[in-house]
Amino acid sequence: MMFKTQPAAARRNDFNPLPRAATGLTLAIRLALAGAAAAALPAQAQAQQAQPAQPARIQYDIPAGPLDQALSRYAQQSGVALSMVADQIAGKHSPGLKGSYGIDEGFAVLLRGSGFAAKRSASGYVLVAQPGPGETALLPAVTVSGDRLTGDAEQAYRVGAATVGVLGQRSLLDTPYSIDVVSRDLMDNRQAASLVDALKGDASVSMLVNDMSGLASQISIRGIGLDLVNGRKIDGLNVFSWSSELPLEHFDSIQVLKGAGGFLYGFSQPGGIVNYVTKRPTEQTRLALTTQVTESGTVLLHGDAGGRFGPGDRFGYRVNLVDEQGDTYVKDGGKIDRQSGSLALDWRITPDLVWSVDGLTQNRKVTGSAGWGLYPNASGETGDYAAAPVLDPIKGSKRIYSPFTSYQTKSDTVGTDLAWHMAPKWDAKLAYRHSEMDRIYENGALYANQRGDYTEEMYAGTDRYKTDEGQALVTGAFDTGPIGHEVTFGASYGKTKGYTSSVSGYEILGSGNIFHPPRFSNPHLHAEPADTQTSEVTQRSVFASDTLHIGQHWDVIAGLRRSNIKDSYAGYDSSATSPTYALVFRPLSQLSLYTSYIESLEQGAIAPISAANANQAFAPLKSRQVEVGAKMDGDDWSATAALFRIKRGLTYTDDNNVFTQNGRSRYDGLELSGKARLTPQWMVNASAIFMRSKVTQGVPDLIGNRVDGVPRQQFSAYAEYTIPETRWVLTAGAQYYGSRFVDAANTVSLPSYTLFDAGVRYVTKLGAMRTTFRLNVDNLADKAYWMTSAGTLLQGAPRTIKLSAQFEY
């Protein structure tokens, strides 16, 4: 069954009037939203999101038949957008397509003799009448959007293609790595407010910290936390955001690479990469406004506008503005004050040359809840980091930090790229991104024993981080006899600088019992500006790969990246090579079997001054991953399975007081996932991971232990049911998190727990506006539970109720 749907990007986002006076960025956002609403005119069609460059060769098996059906199936398998007018191709026939083709080649075969051709545009492809000499005859207004997997609810939130690092845009079916994509539609329908919310449907992802009880969302993938510096990307380029919550309203999707990615992305820990994909200009005028309120009193307003203008619609824009304020679910002092804005522009200089630029700014402050964590010890005193049995979980609605503590982040990022389709089958791209983030902390940490006796301490200071990354990338395709080649080569350069306050504040606020906490006096610590540089790390790399298409059924991938990392403040300068190899076999057009090998690189260690080899600098730390998997796509469903083994490098000091990075930990796992539209009424997503982790080499007392923070199994499920002959949709979700150890010695553990979600949405039209009402209840049973990160405990979110109304013109 094929789905005739509008792209997910064409129908999103959030709005809300706020009760108190607005100033600064808040006022600017409200005025801009009000002006946009007053000027808006109903659009005749939904906007379609701009699409990135597509893969050069894909295996196809499309039978001969009606041209419109063949084109729809081809667009879906290719993961591209195709705009066409159905009436003009009615009754035309296509010879079908079988074999390995580049996308342009495939269109040419399907359209042979039809009098039409597929022409590239910034938004994908558009069907044009074959022109005479010197003519270019575009078809009239777009009335049908070619079928493709865009992540809509109707398609069970399936996405057909994603950016795979330097390999570029690839069909997920033919990609020999585990990748999941969270679409805009899924984020909206679950009312995701943070990275933890957005990824809770993937069992391979564990939540370590949420956006209210800690500094920002922290996750692990396959049991390994994201790299703090290199684990998050925007449009494939690095952005320093590990302690800042990126505002989801400004992104069209989130792509998650599960496992090592050294060749694909450069230096990073082997758990995975999270890539945020920005919203881009829409093909037709669009305006969406959304209001949201929570049961605690948080009110959010979000506006999203896009379109094109100028001669031939050469210029495109996309604007998103967000304002959120009010009381959080943390009672007796929890507050949030958040504003953000983004702008994306593009210029179609020629049909084959497009320049894009985007910017995002955010100011976010959380009061009364965001801390550095609770250390479970036996004394309840500060400075005692020896893990001890933990106290009973405390509901997330109960405040445990002093109400005057706060955590604020100010983030800005600007990116630009120039994409050139320089010849048939050949593309080049130059991209650059700059980001800055200030974190202003006037908060602290807790130390508590099992009885609840605790001490609270408070810190005050400012940290600033600046990152720059540029990349030059060329992709192309050619044949050598019967073998097709899809090549990638390029270079990247990145730099991260860190700054901190030369003067910082510290105070022990007091002690008591956390189940009946006293109110401590406010010491009025002040966070001074970040005026002292403390780090500067530079990364350089060159890379190349070749995907060989051998016949209709086999692909072989070989890639190599040579990287250098230099830490100017630590006196560190070293280089390493990271390869990847993969084999893909397609016995059927909708089934791929694969095996892959890939490494990850982390900055090597420098021996501490207490070691016998003090100040010795080590080469970049390598981790290695082997994966075997299967992927299958049906018309209404998709399923994946992957077996993996990750061998991660560890540092330790041996019995002779020699510091080394010859330690090893091992992660063995099985991942299963499926997404299906079972009937017109029922939709189901489900995933599971079964994992064994242990220390295999290192400190003798730890060998054989489970790696702390890693569960043995996790499960996630989400379902939707559309009530027949109505516009009501019922939703339900469940996530099971397995038990895990808090400490490396495996002496303290946290029990397993299960969370349940429920919701309902209603879609209607109010005049010219498509209107969607959503009600979501997360943690339906109000379960109290602890999350754990780096030996600390953090409160899980309590039952949370969100109600929103979305209006789309």
From TrEMBL:
<keyword id="KW-0410">Iron transport</keyword>
<keyword id="KW-0406">Ion transport</keyword>
<dbReference type="GO" id="GO:0015344">
    <property type="term" value="F:siderophore uptake transmembrane transporter activity"/>
</dbReference>
<keyword id="KW-0798">TonB box</keyword>
<keyword id="KW-1134">Transmembrane beta strand</keyword>
<protein>
    <recommendedName>
        <fullName>Secretin/TonB short N-terminal domain-containing protein</fullName>
    </recommendedName>
</protein>
<dbReference type="Pfam" id="PF07715">
    <property type="entry name" value="Plug"/>
</dbReference>
<feature type="signal peptide">
    <location>
        <begin position="1"/>
        <end position="45"/>
    </location>
</feature>
<keyword id="KW-0408">Iron</keyword>
<keyword id="KW-0998">Cell outer membrane</keyword>
<keyword id="KW-0813">Transport</keyword>
<dbReference type="GO" id="GO:0009279">
    <property type="term" value="C:cell outer membrane"/>
</dbReference>
<dbReference type="InterPro" id="IPR037066">
    <property type="entry name" value="Plug_dom_sf"/>
</dbReference>
<dbReference type="InterPro" id="IPR039426">
    <property type="entry name" value="TonB-dep_rcpt-like"/>
</dbReference>
<dbReference type="InterPro" id="IPR036942">
    <property type="entry name" value="Beta-barrel_TonB_sf"/>
</dbReference>
<dbReference type="InterPro" id="IPR012910">
    <property type="entry name" value="Plug_dom"/>
</dbReference>
<keyword id="KW-0812">Transmembrane</keyword>
<feature type="domain" description="Secretin/TonB short N-terminal">
    <location>
        <begin position="82"/>
        <end position="130"/>
    </location>
</feature>
<dbReference type="GO" id="GO:0038023">
    <property type="term" value="F:signaling receptor activity"/>
</dbReference>
<keyword id="KW-0472">Membrane</keyword>
<dbReference type="InterPro" id="IPR011662">
    <property type="entry name" value="Secretin/TonB_short_N"/>
</dbReference>
<dbReference type="InterPro" id="IPR010105">
    <property type="entry name" value="TonB_sidphr_rcpt"/>
</dbReference>
<dbReference type="InterPro" id="IPR000531">
    <property type="entry name" value="Beta-barrel_TonB"/>
</dbReference>
<comment type="similarity">
    <text>Belongs to the TonB-dependent receptor family.</text>
</comment>
<keyword id="KW-0732">Signal</keyword>
<dbReference type="Pfam" id="PF00593">
    <property type="entry name" value="TonB_dep_Rec_b-barrel"/>
</dbReference>
<dbReference type="GO" id="GO:0015891">
    <property type="term" value="P:siderophore transport"/>
</dbReference>
<keyword id="KW-0675">Receptor</keyword>
